[in-house]
Amino acid sequence: MIAIVVAVVLALLLGAFVLIPRPPKSGHTKNDQSNVKLNKGTKLYTKSEVSLHNKGTDCWIIIKDKVYDVTSYVEEHPGGDAILAHAGDDSTEGFYGPQHATRVFDMIEDFYIGDLEKS
């Protein structure tokens, strides 16, 4: 009986840990900010600026022409290093793959930092 109660409590705690998104840490530097252009309050980034953020300790991705700083989420990503496959690049196709539950569509907005500048 005690084992069942402990199992239920652990399952609830684990579920809360997985379902509650963590706020992103600021992964960009003051130098990055000098290259940001403003357009009606939205920060714009060039593809070359995003490409500089291509490692686990500094990871930005593009999804449908929006830029996300997912650095704080890299180590927690359930798919492991799969998130790094397109670090600093377009991750739209992988993001909309069948492996993601619908809640990721809400979670990703926590990491939004701006839009991709149109070429």
TrEMBL record:
<dbReference type="GO" id="GO:0016020">
    <property type="term" value="C:membrane"/>
</dbReference>
<feature type="domain" description="Cytochrome b5 heme-binding">
    <location>
        <begin position="42"/>
        <end position="117"/>
    </location>
</feature>
<dbReference type="InterPro" id="IPR036400">
    <property type="entry name" value="Cyt_B5-like_heme/steroid_sf"/>
</dbReference>
<keyword id="KW-0479">Metal-binding</keyword>
<keyword id="KW-0408">Iron</keyword>
<protein>
    <recommendedName>
        <fullName>Cytochrome b5 heme-binding domain-containing protein</fullName>
    </recommendedName>
</protein>
<keyword id="KW-0732">Signal</keyword>
<comment type="similarity">
    <text>Belongs to the cytochrome b5 family.</text>
</comment>
<feature type="signal peptide">
    <location>
        <begin position="1"/>
        <end position="18"/>
    </location>
</feature>
<dbReference type="InterPro" id="IPR001199">
    <property type="entry name" value="Cyt_B5-like_heme/steroid-bd"/>
</dbReference>
<dbReference type="Pfam" id="PF00173">
    <property type="entry name" value="Cyt-b5"/>
</dbReference>
<dbReference type="InterPro" id="IPR018506">
    <property type="entry name" value="Cyt_B5_heme-BS"/>
</dbReference>
<keyword id="KW-0349">Heme</keyword>
<dbReference type="GO" id="GO:0046872">
    <property type="term" value="F:metal ion binding"/>
</dbReference>
<dbReference type="InterPro" id="IPR050668">
    <property type="entry name" value="Cytochrome_b5"/>
</dbReference>
<dbReference type="GO" id="GO:0020037">
    <property type="term" value="F:heme binding"/>
</dbReference>
